[in-house]
Amino acid sequence: MSVPEVITLADGAGGKASRRLVEDLFLEELRNPLLEPLDDAAIVGANGTRIAVTTDSYVVRPLRFPGGDIGQLAVNGTINDLAVSGAVPLALTAGFVVEEGFPRDELRELVASMAAAARAAGIAVAAGDTKVVERGAADGLFVTTAGVGLLDLRAVLGLDRVRAGDRLLVSGGIAEHGVAIMLARGNLELELAVASDTAPLDGLTATLCSLGPELRWMRDPTRGGLATTLNELAAGTGLSVVFDEQAVPVREDVRAACELLGIDPLTVANEGKLVAVVSSQAADEALALLRAHPLGSAAALVGELREDSEPLVLARTPFGTRLVEMLVGDPLPRIC
Amino acid sequence: MRFVDEFRDGRAARALAAELRSLVEPGERVKLMEVCGGHTHAIYRHGLDALLPDEVELVHGPGCPVCVIPMGRVDDAISLAERPEVTFASFGDMLRVPGGRRRSLLEAKARGADVRTVYSPLDALALAQRESSRQVVFFGVGFETTAPATALTLRRARALAVSNFTVFCNHVLIGPALHAILDSPDTEIDGLVGPGHVSTVIGTRPYEFVCREYGRPVVVAGFEPTDILRAVALLLRQLREGRAEVENEYGRVVRREGNPEALGAMREVFDVRPDFEWRGLGPIPRSGLQIAEPFAAWDAERRFTVPGARIEDPKACRCGDVLRGRAKPYECRVFGTACTPERPLGTCMVSSEGACAAYYAYGRHRRSAA
Amino acid sequence: MCLGIPGQLVERLDDGLARVDVSGVRRVVSVAFTPEAQAGDWVLIHVGFALARIDEEEARATLDLLAEAIAAELADASEPSNRVLLGEEEERGAGVASLSRSPARPGGSERRPGA
Predict the structure, then answer these.
(1) Does C61 touch chain B (CB under 8 A)?
(2) What contacts B84, CB < 8 A, 6 or more positions away?
């Protein structure tokens, strides 16, 4: 099957095309044991300790949006990659690629916002780099981060830990970040007070780590939404993921905005939510732990993993079940 | 959500499913065409196909105005978008549709074209007013549901004398498409689930020819699960009783005479093209709209030159047969191989409502559950 | 062409426009095709236009038919009443279900966190 000869936006949207780019190009070229799991963070062993390492790039447009900005996104997103890997974040680095002509005080504000987010999360931006590129080459500002964390020894996480019968939790209302961004881009003219849910999840993940080996796996469903994350779970475990569509928390007005635009909330990005797989014995306790935390007050048990002839993601509706596929490209508003 | 959730009641759906089972004989084969892509989408989104008895087969019809735009016209759109002075405004649906050589508006955007997604043609017009140095071109696609919106926008553009706004008009009409499908001698369709939102504009009278000339029943249906199931039940009932009538399941928004203001706007702003090519179906006479003379100054095809190439559907493509209910998606040689949702060859795979795209996702599930 | 969503008209504005509300999301739409629609009315919204007013009587009637289909199915699983679906006038009247009745949904209320 042929692929386009240039990289397109679909390749970065977090869904099928992105997955193919990572597997066929990056993994193909870089292949090594640390990279192969393609998890949110790599676990590196050194002198008996286990360190989680992650990197991420932030190219969001617009740079500011209701609920946050690129600085907050960068800090929280990196913390979250560490957190869902079962690590306590230690430090971040940040690289900035700035377009010539970018206003200096706007840059200061975004970096200050980054600093505030880091302080709030109890973590330091320990190192950085800056490059300036010609006008037109960077769309304002790009931020790349790296994060380092210390593995929580209570946690034994991995796709290989997941078993049939394990249960699936979502920490709260989905689709808020993606909808906030779509509205902030300006052409949809919907009046809706929705803010990005960008938030550091390390407090939440630390409470779940108290479950020890009953906690199997976590991930934060960013670009590509819950649908993409669940498909990665199914593909990585060889089990089917079956969940109740109506059990997945969505704010009523966010759901209405998605209906108006013809977008499936399951495919919309989140920046302050997590998905967790726990043993069935620990399911109720896991839910209670999440709900006791301010960021998990709307958490829900939504489904389970099961053996199947083929690993699929299936949503139970009031009428039957439907297949939930990974996104192809970004969710686009439709009229049809 | 009001007027939505009440019509998504699971118990009602199961009760209707039981009704459906009582309305077919075991081993009977009934083929119903759901004309509108939105019905296809609703069926798969809610998993309704599982509630239908095995005897009832739903055939996905030509009511996907995105799918049926010929590749040559998509290339014309891309050529407009690639002009440096043009801001090309489009509904999201059209962005991934491939033209000739599999290029799309999304790829043109990746190569630097100024392509913007809009929810409404009015927003495209407002964009033109805000960005007076740009030539804003709006990609007008859709059936009679959407054509009035474009018509009104053109009226408004003229009234406000917005000179940097034009429309690339590709609106199509459902009636001629139904004629073309039903005229084909080997079309195997026993009844039609009529497009609910097109009918808010055109009413239910335009379907009466289906009953009179072709002897098939039509039930105009809403888009919620209970609407669709109820419409199937009403069709099966008609078939059992040997009736062929137009029934309106969607009475809460569809009236027999349609919407006179919307029809009036369309008549004022558009002329019917002598011919318009439909991807998968070929040229259908008097099936497409063009902008009428009084609004010529807002017609993108008159302001700009477009390549206007006519590109053949790929030889391997069996979309025409699929659209007429003569072939199933998996009977097409290239289904799932050279033609997939990510890299579609033909119209039926192009949008998520297309028969092949829907089957591609659904079919795997069915085979796994079997 | 298909994506039409019900919304409630909140206020009429100048220029043939109005503001509508869909479960807390608001949008300015054209009411050129529903000139008689007033604040409080429900309309079907498609690409920034109110295409039709929603007839609450008709909606209620359809829901009544669905309620009767459920009742018939429960009452006699082997012989469901087909007449219920056809909306024959004489069938309506008894046991009219209220439009504001909220049908019980699986999953209950915990999936709707507050704004």
Answers:
(1) yes
(2) none
In one-letter notation, the amino acid at residue A229 is T
**Which tokens in the block code for residue A253?**
């007005």
Q: Which helix (H) or strand (E) holds B236?
A: helix B225-240
- Counted domains in chain B: 2
Residues 2-31, chain C: which have Cβ within 8 Å of B? 2-6, 8, 22-23, 29-30
Closest CB to C103 among B6, B18, B41:
B6
* HSE of B254, CA atoms in CB hemisphere, 13 A: 27
Please give the Cα distance from A68 to A212 (Å, whole number).
Answer: 33
Pick the CATH number of C5-54 from 2.170.150.70, 2.60.120.10, 2.40.30.160, 2.30.30.140: 2.30.30.140
**pLDDT tens, position by position, B201-253:** 999 999 999 999 999 999 999 999 999 999 999 999 999 999 999 999 999 99
Q: Nearest Cβ partner of B123 from C48, C61, C72?
A: C48
Helix boundaries (H) for chain A: 16-21, 28-30, 70-83, 104-120, 176-184, 202-209, 225-237, 252-261, 283-292
Q: Are residues A43 and A128 in the same domain?
A: yes
- Do the Cβ atoms of A91 and A147 come closer than 8 Å? yes
Q: Rounded to whole angstroms, what are the CA distances from A198 to A54, A79, B67, C7?
A: 18, 11, 37, 30
Boundary (domain end) residue, out of A100, A124, A151: A151
Domain range for residue B77? 1-313
CATH code of the domain containing A135: 3.30.1330.10
Nearest to C25 among A172, A248, A256 (CB): A256
- Are residues A178 and A194 in contact, defined by beta-carbon separation less than 8 angstroms? no
Q: What is the CATH number of the domain that holds B47?
A: 3.40.50.11740
Interval C37-73: pLDDT, tens: 999 999 999 999 999 999 999 999 999 999 998 998 8
Amino acid B290 reads Q
pLDDT in tens, B239-252: 999 999 999 999 99
